[in-house]
Amino acid sequence: GHDGGHDGRHGGETQPPPVSRSTPQPPAARAPTANDAGRAIAEVATQMVGVPYRYGGESPREGFDCSGLVFYAYARAGLDVPRNSRQLFRATRKIPLERAAEGDLVFFQDQEKLSHVGIYLGDGLFVHAPSSGRTVSVSSLDGAYYRRHLVGVGRLLPD
Q1: Which of 7, 41, 69, 127 is most buried (most C-beta within 10 Å)?
Q2: b or e along 29-39 (b: 16 or more beta carbons within 10 Å of the residue's beta carbon)?
């Protein structure tokens, strides 16, 4: 009574190849950490240094105003943020300057109105589109003007 069905080799070949441990895992579907996004934002903004200031501008081709630079850098990092500095100020969670990280926003005011926004780079530096006739540049919060007029540091990124 030999039915010839099982010769002992059945099923040996169909095992999947062993999974090599070094294959990079696909990124999990989670929000990027603030670090990654903040670094990307700071990097894009820094690459815009030298682009002329232009009121209402929000691209390297046409130039930037202060909130246009923020809008552009965040958009390049995949984040949709408000387009003017007052709305940006309202949308952020305020944090102490010592907790500021790359990509956070620094806000300045003249007299009583919010007048300016820049992107924090770390080490007391920020990048911004200063004013008419100037170009996007990196400035230090230690500068007397900026220190006197800083009204807040805000975070739009998830913690």
Answers
A1: 41
A2: eeebebeebbb
pLDDT digits (tens, 9 = 90+) for 20-47: 556 555 554 445 566 899 999 999 999 9
Closest of 89, 110, 111, 100 to residue 141, by C-alpha = 100
pLDDT along the chain (159 residues), means of 10: 56 57 52 79 98 97 97 96 95 96 96 90 96 95 92 91
CB 102 within 8 A of CB 120: yes
Read off φ and ψ for residue 33, nearest 5 degrees: -65, 155
Dihedral, 54, 102, 37, 155 alpha carbons, nearest 10: -80
